[in-house]
Amino acid sequence: MTRRLIAILLFLLLALPAAAGVRYPLTVTDAIGREVTLPAPPKAILLGSGFNLVAMSLIHPDPVSLLAGWAGDMKDDNPEIYERFRERFPAIGKLPLIGDGVAISLEAALPLKADLALLANWQAETEPGRQTIAMLERAGVPVVVVNFNTEVLTRTPEQIRLLGKILDREEQAEAYATFYEAHVQRIRDRVSARKQPGPRVLLEAFPNPDQCCYAYGEGGIGSFIALAGGQNVAAGLPSQGAVVSSEFVLASDPDVYIATASPGGRYSPLSVGPGVSAEEAQDSLKAAVASPHLAGLRAVREGRVHGLWNFFNAVPVNLLAAEAVARWLQPELFADIDPAETLAEINRRFAAVPFEGSYWTGPAPR
């Protein structure tokens, strides 16, 4: 090959447009409709909620390497999943804490010289949250709000794609978003074809014999009841749910009862989620439904009681909850759908840190 030909080829290569990918400055629209411009690829991110590390870990092989500081809510509420991250990425143990998942300490956050802050929608939609955003931006830190806990059926794939763009992991994000949408659509198509009402369902958060009760409405993980063709007895409540009385629970007398909780029974007799064995989850569910306001329900008498990890309402693996609920509500329609198989595929194809434990359980052994 002559020098002249080599020079021509080099000229043509340099003249070609750059390969497709994220270009900076990058402007994105976040979960609450704000346009945010990132001047360069973020390499020092503040996480307003530690649970958003789970979302990052589905599309990035080392999400901890991108963090400048984070909130302690995942570590405090679900120490088992934190330990799995610490084993895989020891650097997480040295990350500065900037808050508790509700409020952010600007005193802790601002000295970290971050180039991006990711806040959860529940933080951004409060007056203190709006003030925090304004102060971070005045300090030169762009703020992007993400939402994995409301309108999850549409928000989850949308927000994964948003993260993929921000982190320059669009191919990985698109793969997970497409995977999520296909699994949800499979449930939706079968329910739509059947066109008959499913069972009446009560979804209660953190059941406790000493107090009653918080019922999920039609938002968040409550949306999976309607997706599976069920009827939510708390449908008239605010979207994300509300406190109800024991009289409400007894009067609703659902066909199926589902409780949510976290590992270790910190807030409820029920223990379910990361690091929990199948035996512990089942035994604790049996103890939880022995509460006076639950024991007389038809669902309890007939053994149609189940448990879910409560923090499915904060992380984009909530499609596992959708599949579990579908199996519980209409087992004859969804006999071939197995959330355990879906979890195994997520661990194999996407998760930087495998999800281990019992994230759903039931029925309670008698």
Automatic annotation (TrEMBL):
Residue ranges occupied by any Fe/B12 periplasmic-binding domain in the UniProt entry: 43-337
Keywords assigned by UniProt, alphabetized: Signal
InterPro entries: ABC_Transporter_SBP (IPR050902), ABC_transptr_periplasmic_BD (IPR002491)
Gene3D superfamilies named among the record's database cross-references: Nitrogenase molybdenum iron protein domain
Annotated signal sequence range: 1-20
PROSITE patterns for the chain: FE_B12_PBP
Domain of life, per lineage: Bacteria
Record-linked Pfam families: Peripla_BP_2
NCBIfam families the UniProt entry points to: PRK14048.1
Protein name: Iron complex transport system substrate-binding protein
